[in-house]
Description:
284 residues; mainly alpha; Tetracycline Repressor, domain 2; Four Helix Bundle (Hemerythrin (Met), subunit A); 2 domains; 72% helix; transmembrane helix; UbiA family prenyltransferase; membrane; transmembrane; UbiA_prenyltransferase
Amino acid sequence: MPAPSPAFPLPTAPVGGLLRACHPLPAAAVTLFAAVLAAAAGRGTAGTALTAAAVAAGQLSVGWCNDRVDLTRDRAAGRRDKPLATGGVPAAAGTAAALTALALCVPLSLAPGPAAGAAHLAGVAAAWAYNLRLKATAASWLPYAVAFGLLPAFVTLGLPGAPWPPPWLTGAAALLGAGAHFANVLPDIADDLAAGVRGLPQRLGARRAATVAALLVLGSAALLVLGPPGHVTPYGWPLLTLTGALLLGTSRAPGRIPFLGVLAVAGADVLLLLARSAGHAAAW
C-alpha cells in the first residue's frame, strides 16, 4: 500500500532547516517526557510508541507555528538562528509543515480513545493559542501550564477504564510547563520588549522571571517527591536538594543556561517518576 500523501504538500525546503525551525530540543524533551509517562503507566510498547508519535506531531506543529508567526519579529531582531528569518526555509514551507504536523496529530491523538484524544488536542490548542495571541499577554504562562498539565491525562485516559491521573502528577506537570516558559524567554526579554511582546516574564523583568522559573520548577519536583501516597523514598530528599542547588546555580546565568537547567531538572523529574511508579503502581 503506498504511503498517504501529506495533507498539505510541503514546498521545497532543506530538511535540516525545517528540523532547526521546529524547536528540536524542547520538542524532543516533551516527547520523551510523555513516552516515559506512558511506559510508567503501563501503556505497553505499542501504546507508548503511539503516545510518543502523537506528542511529537503536536510539538512539531507548535514549533513550526511559532517560528512562522514570529517571522516578522525575528527578521527585525536579526535572528540568525531562525531558518525562516534568514530565508533558509521559505515561509510557505514553514506554514505547510505546521499544518501537516497538526493534521497528523489529530488521528494519532484520538487513536487511544476520544477522552485521551480530547485531552491532548486541548493541550495542543493551548500551545497554538500561545503562539497566535497569548504570548504577548499577562496570561502567557497559562497555555504552558494547561498543555503540560494535560499530558498525564492524555496518557492515563488511554488506559482501560480511562482513569484520570492523580492530582499531584497533573500539578507537577503544570508547574514544570509554566517554569519552562519563564526560563525559555529569559535570553530574549530585551528583544521581546522592543518588539512589543509583553508576556508575564517580560513584564516582570529578567531577574524576577528567573526567580519565578526556579520556584515553579522546584515546586514541580517537590510535588513528585511529596505527592504520591506513602513515605518519601530515600532518594527523594537528595534529589530535591540537588534540584534546588541546580536551579539556584543556573537561574541567574546568561543566555539559555537557565532553560537548559530546567531541562536538566525535567530529566531528573523523569527519573524520579520512573522510580516512584515502579514502587507505587497504585498511585496511577
